[in-house]
Amino acid sequence: MAEKNSTIAVYANAAEIEGAVRELQKNGFDTKKISVIGRDENKEEQVIGYYFTGEKTGHIGRLGKLWAGVWLFVLGSALVFIPGLGMVVAGGPIVSWIVAALEGAVIIGGLSTIGIALYNLGIPKEKVIKYETFLKEDKFLLVFHGTAAEVDRAHEILDSTHPLEATIHHG
To answer: Range of 156's domain?
Structure first.
């Protein structure tokens, strides 16, 4: 991705992040520029899984409804186990950066694969560490990337949805 401008909003639960995504859609934002990241730890010892049948993509787990909805409009999806974070589910362009981080096997100061993907997006390391902490606390990240003007406008909309935190990062 050439654009290193992004805004990242942190949400406490699935309902809040779904509402934020709907707000961006309602305001005409390109859904191919939206990524969602969250953990799907299953404390009840039930199956957690991801499937793609060629016609349908799905997620089995406590957040199956959220991910099924997210995958309808974003480009790319992944379910990966990341040491230190656990089972992480992602949808959107961030998936390409996660795959690049996994394939590159680059270690950047103790960051997880998600952290490396965010760092490569132009997010400062201290903020990456904070975002990883939010994920460990079962929060969700919504990442919107694009031109500086698009990111500024998306940030205003996301900020109006009352996230726990919303930050602009211009590359």
So the answer is: 5-169
